Amino acid sequence: MSHPAPRKALTAADIRSRKGGAPLVCLTAYTTPIAQIADAECDVVLVGDSVGMVLHGLPSTLQVTLEMMILHGKAVARGLQRALMVVDMPFGSYEESPEQALRNAARLMAETGAGAVKLEGGRHMEATIRFLVARGIPVMAHIGLTPQSVNVIGGYSVQGKGADAARIRDDASAVAEAGAFSVVIEKVPAALADAITAEVAIPTIGIGASAGCDGQILVIDDMLGLFDAFKPKFVKRYAHLAADAGEAVRAYAEEVRARAFPAPEHVFTDEGDAS
Ligand code: KIV
Predict the structure, then answer these.
(1) What is the pLDDT of residues 106-124, one digit of tens each?
(2) How many domains does the chain have?
(3) How far is the CA of 23 from the centre of ligand 1 (A)?
(4) What is the CATH number of the domain that holds 107?
(5) Which of 24, 32, 249, 272 has a C-alpha 20 to 30 A away from that of 184?
(6) How far is the CA of 255 from the centre of ligand 1 (A)?
(7) 249 vs 222: CA distance, rounded Å
């Protein structure tokens, strides 16, 4: 039986082996052209369920479906050469039982070509993570602020402050012991993220956490300044693409109204080339 040559992508095991090494560079992507740009620098590209808010205009990640994740996962896969592609398991696709999680994770991986899935939750997801890993599904865990639980938490507040730190530390050790190959730690005090990074044997990927984590992740539309509905404190804008796009559309509109566009070089004649 012959197998198609797989792309030379990093694997979950490669990422796991980077614990304590050079910081892991991670970003989200949802489309082929953005995936190509991210792939040039990233170790991990996450097809995050943030796609619902930043591309589809949804009010939270709760409305994101498995079909949306598969569609965007397929698009991202076409843009990647080197980075490990991780796809988020959307709300409602894994919480019911390990068997439900396996069915949907297997579908996500088979239909998108992802090398791993990510799911939210700590100690209470331990059995599910163990079940998935034992059956060939690499899992990136996600603890601290878990946006799919926004209605239980009551907002997007910093997690693990004061006495609550013990809960997040316990979540971290639970997912590491269950076999997750890495763990995203979102919106916790920096000292807590540093303590967890020192305690667990798997890479910690910070978002609103600490520069001491084993890697960092941001939503790419946030750091490019493409999504500016709101800006959490932990987002640094490395570009201002929404503002640039607004300028470009204004310039185009002005030129159309003034009949300055299209100019002679943009139109065809009887004699010119046909392309
Ligand atoms: O969905 C997402 O983009 C994420 C990152 C914020 C880690 O989960």
Answers:
(1) 999 999 999 999 999 999 9
(2) 1
(3) 18
(4) 3.20.20.60
(5) 32
(6) 39
(7) 20
